[in-house]
Design brief:
The protein is α+β, with helices and mostly antiparallel strands. It has two domains: about 15-90, Ubiquitin-like (UB roll), CATH 3.10.20.30; about 100-170, DNA polymerase, domain 1. Helix content is about 35%, strand content about 15%. The chain has helices at about 5-15, 40-45, 100-110, 120-130, 135-145, 155-170; strands at about 15-25, 25-35, 65, 70-75, 85-90. The protein has a five-stranded mixed beta sheet with strand order 2-1-5-3-4. Strand 3 (about 65) and strand 4 (about 70-75) form a beta hairpin. Helix 3 crosses helix 6 (about 155-170). The longest helix is centred in the last third of the chain and has 15 residues, at about 155-170. It is elongated.
Length: about 170
């Protein structure tokens, strides 16, 4: 027998809404409170665990996703603000089992140490490369400014992104 009164359960369910999310090109429906953070749904409901919970304030970049093409922290983003928008996570960057060029270059340059922040950094770098054909080092640094990495692999990350620019757009 449940210790929660029936009226309380009914009231809680009445506060839930159904949202349709486009995640990595796939339509997904979820029923939850309108203030549920997107990150919680990605990780807990959809099993997309590449985006990480870092600060919970949208400041560290570990939870970054592309929202309609723009890098956006998902840890403090309510689901009500993303209903019917295009969401791309780190899992959506690869094609089937093949990593994107940028992901391959992060591996080649050994850009990840612990890897906790890398999904957010890859998302931010991907947004930059989609927005600008040949960004210079200053533009790469600016695009990655919101992503914190405590391991200190910044030089290798920059090298990987700049290599992606050269590989994708040779002179």
């Amino acid at each position: 027998m449940s210790s929660t009164p029936e009226w309380a359960t009914a009231r809680a369910l009445a506060d839930y809404e159904t949202f349709t999310l486009s995640v990595n090109g796939e339509q997904r429906r979820v029923t939850c409170s309108d203030d549920t953070p997107l990150l919680y749904l990605l990780r807990n409901d959809f099993g997309l665990t590449g985006s990480r919970f870092g600060c919970g304030l949208g400041q560290c970049g570990a939870c970054m996703v592309l929202l309609n093409g723009q890098p956006t922290p998902s840890c403090d983003l309510p689901v009500s603000s993303v209903d019917s928008k295009e969401i791309l996570t780190i899992e959506g960057l690869s094609n089937d089992d093949e990593m994107s060029l940028l992901q391959q270059l992060f591996v080649a340059e050994q850009a990840a140490q612990c890897g906790f922040c890398m999904s957010g950094i890859l998302i931010s770098a991907t947004a930059l490369l989609r927005r600008r054909r040949r960004p210079d080092e200053a533009a790469v640094r600016a695009a990655l400014d919101r992503n914190l990495c405590r391991c200190g692999t910044h030089t290798r990350v920059l090298r990987a992104v700049l290599r992606a620019v050269e590989d994708a757009c040779p002179n």
